[in-house]
Design a protein that fits this description.
The protein has about 500 residues and is of the alpha/beta class. It has 20 helices and 15 strands. Strands 5-6-7-9-8 form a 5-stranded mixed beta barrel.
Length: about 500
């Protein structure tokens, strides 16, 4: 029995609070390193310690390679032919080993083992820190300022763990002194030469959420949900809240009696002004809420560009924009939309100009008068595509339209789009439908070109189709497809 190894393991385990398996592994690595020094070339040594008796054995290992291969590491590799003199069953890629004389666990081995053990301790401690703090990402942490510089602050988090607040994570003009207790949101854990370093931020929007969780029990209990946050750190922030409990006022709960709750959050953030607004699933109404205290006269929503034109009275313009554009900027970040603030007069002129230009397009291409074109613009139609592919029911629902007008407008718009497509693609070639397909009862010119683009060029081609074969053509309902196919087959029965 090798009691010396067992005594070392017990001593280090108790002193460093480490598992014995880690220490045994470190001693095995140390004994292997000392044994390997006996050889002139680089070798692979494996040491196995009996955890109960402390006795150990040493083995030299080789990787088996093909007979014709160049040995990159001669001390660690062995050709297949030679390896089979030791074990006839080995194959290329296997590992073979032979027992070698073990070194004594003396002063040199013990010193090497100590170095390995300390290295293992530091590695284990780093892994423990990373594992422990990775679960705390995006939550509030607190430390004591132990070094304050212009571009960073180092916090002592306890247990030998440090955190850093970089320049972009510091609030502007915030005065933090040595030994101050500082809160922040843990953003990540990064490796440093001295060990893991926690990265903390006081400017992250998530810090605002975490502070409200501390101050407002309803947020912690998820009775009130914080839906969105936008910050100009240290200056102003907007937070949108919502509740599904009609008995609770989410804004009042977050503000607190005489503003006590929101004031506590503001004080923690260096006096940052915080607007608590009501969340709304309608983006336009959310923007109206977010632009408070400015009063909004009208909003024009452009869903394609995800932007809104916000019209306000002249006396509300400065309030809506805010100092250095702060109010409209935060409202845009909160809603996720691009916001343009204009006065009422400019908004009306813009709408008139757009209405006139859009109306002119409809007058020119759809052969309608200006009154009918203005109706289309008023109802939200902006392009010929909007008219061409709008459901008939949508056009019929317009008070001034009936089914006949709706069908005529869709047909004209599709014919214009087809003509434009043909003219733009004439150089690369477009499949032309046959005349007998164009002359078929119920066939429109637009639909004939759509069918031709799908390989249905002649009347016979259409006659050979089934209704399901035409199901991917948006312009055709199943009933219309069946009628066209039967019309194409009509000559079969004559």
């Amino acid at each position: 029995m090798n009691k010396e190894i067992l005594l070392v393991v017990d001593s280090v385990s108790n002193e460093k609070d480490m598992e014995k398996e880690v220490i045994f592994h470190a001693i095995e690595s140390a004994l292997a390193a000392v044994t390997a020094k006996r050889y002139p070339e680089e070798v692979d040594i494996r040491v196995i310690i009996n955890n109960k008796t402390g006795d150990y054995e040493s083995f030299r290992r080789w990787a088996v390679v093909g007979d014709g291969e160049i040995l990159e590491f001669p001390g660690k590799q062995m050709p297949l032919k030679q390896a089979r003199t030791i074990n006839a069953d080995v194959e290329v890629g296997d590992i073979i080993e032979e027992p070698v004389e073990s070194v004594e666990f003396g002063r040199i081995a013990a010193q090497t083992a100590k170095q390995v053990i300390m290295r293992e301790i530091r590695r284990a401690e780093r892994e423990d820190i990373v594992k422990r703090y990775m679960t705390l990402i995006d939550t509030l942490v607190m430390g004591v300022a132990k070094k304050v510089a212009r571009d960073q602050i180092i916090l002592d988090m306890g247990n030998g763990v440090d955190a850093i607040i970089l320049r972009d994570g510091m609030l502007p003009k915030e005065a933090i002194r040595l030994h101050d207790r500082v809160r922040g949101v843990l953003c990540g854990v990064r490796e440093d030469t001295k060990g893991p370093m926690l990265v903390v931020s006081r400017t992250s929007p998530k810090m605002l959420v975490e502070l409200f969780k501390l101050e407002v029990p309803e947020v912690t209990e998820e009775v009130i949900n914080i839906k969105a946050v936008a910050r100009d750190p240290g200056l102003r922030a907007k937070i949108a809240v919502k509740t599904n409990d009609g008995r609770i006022d989410p804004i009042g709960a977050c503000i607190g009696i005489r503003g006590s709750r929101v004031q506590n959050v503001s004080n923690e953030l260096g006096g940052e002004r915080i607007d608590v607004i009501l969340w709304d699933d309608d983006p336009a109404q959310l923007v109206v809420n977010a632009m408070a205290p400015a009063e909004i006269a009208s909003i024009v929503v452009d869903e394609d560009r995800k932007s809104m034109d916000i019209a306000v009275r002249e006396d509300q313009l400065a309030l809506a924009i805010g100092r250095n554009g702060q109010n409209v900027k935060l409202a845009g970040e909160l809603s996720g939309w691009k916001l343009n603030v204009v006065n009422v007069a400019d908004a009306e002129n813009k709408v008139k100009a757009e209405t006139g230009s859009l109306g002119a397009i409809f007058v020119e291409h759809l052969a309608v008068d200006s009154d009918l074109a203005d109706i289309l613009v008023r109802e939200g139609f902006r392009t010929l595509e909007d008219v061409a592919y709008a459901p008939v029911e949508e056009l019929e629902s317009i008070e001034e339209f009936d089914k006949e007008i709706a069908e005529a407008l869709r047909t004209r718009a599709r014919d214009v789009l087809l003509e434009q497509a043909l003219s733009s693609k004439s150089e690369v070639g477009v499949v032309e439908p046959a005349q007998d397909l164009l002359d078929l009862d119920g066939m429109s010119r637009h639909l004939a070109y759509v069918l031709a683009s799908k390989g249905i060029v002649t009347r016979e081609d259409l006659a050979d189709q089934a209704v399901d074969d035409l199901s991917d053509i948006e312009e055709l309902s199943k009933e219309d497809a069946a009628k066209l196919i039967m019309a194409a087959r009509k000559h079969w029965f004559e």
